[in-house]
From TrEMBL:
Hydrolase is among the record's keywords: no
Region (Disordered): 150-174
Keywords: Signal
Native source organism of the sequence: Marisediminitalea aggregata
Keyword Signal: yes
First and last residue of the signal peptide: 1-20
Protein name: Lipoprotein
Bias-annotated ranges (Basic and acidic residues): 163-174
Length: 174
């Protein structure tokens, strides 16, 4: 029994260490946390960043950083943010013993230049467990529509020099 407890403790510690060691700024895999983008035209992109927590500033900074990287990767100098949206989704996690089947809906909001459309997709889950303590789970998502450009940058508060943004917002090694 003691061996089983030690093994369980070791597995939990390794799992927590693996989660803690993941950098916040990374490419999203399979709809998970991190950045992703969709190419709309040769010079227009929609940039996404999804992270844990509720820090709106960090989520927006990481979306802006990805926008700067895309701009430079495509051979452009600056980008204009045509539309921006940041959403925080909070969920209270149960703290009581629980066994059951639940059906949830995932909310997806797509925004264009004029309107937004919200769709709901069903998800079924089977859950069991004993929860000790309590917590609130938050997910934050930031989305930017950007237009890439070269040469003289427009004189607008929505235009950004890609090199400066990348230099100022890149994660610093600690």
């Amino acid at each position: 029994m003691k061996t089983l407890m030690k093994l369980a403790t070791l597995v939990m510690a390794m799992t927590l260490a693996a989660c803690a060691s993941q950098p916040a700024y990374r490419a999203a895999e399979n709809g998970g946390y991190g950045y992703s983008e969709t190419k709309l035209t040769d010079t227009q992109y929609r940039v996404y960043f999804k992270g844990k927590g509720s820090d709106k500033t960090k989520a927006m900074d990481y979306a802006m950083l990805r926008a700067a990287e895309i701009t430079l990767d495509q051979g452009y100098d600056w980008f204009v943010v045509a539309n921006r949206e940041t959403m925080v989704d909070r969920e209270k996690v149960s703290m009581e013993p629980e066994i059951g089947f639940s059906k949830r809906y995932t909310r997806v909001t797509d925004c264009g230049l004029v309107t937004c459309r919200t769709s709901y997709y069903p998800e079924s889950t089977l859950s069991t467990g004993i929860y000790v303590g309590g917590r609130e789970k938050s997910v934050i998502e930031s989305a930017l529509d950007i237009q890439l450009g070269r040469g003289t940058r427009p004189d607008s508060s929505a235009s950004f020099d890609a090199r400066q943004v990348k230099e100022n917002l890149s994660p610093k090694d600690e």
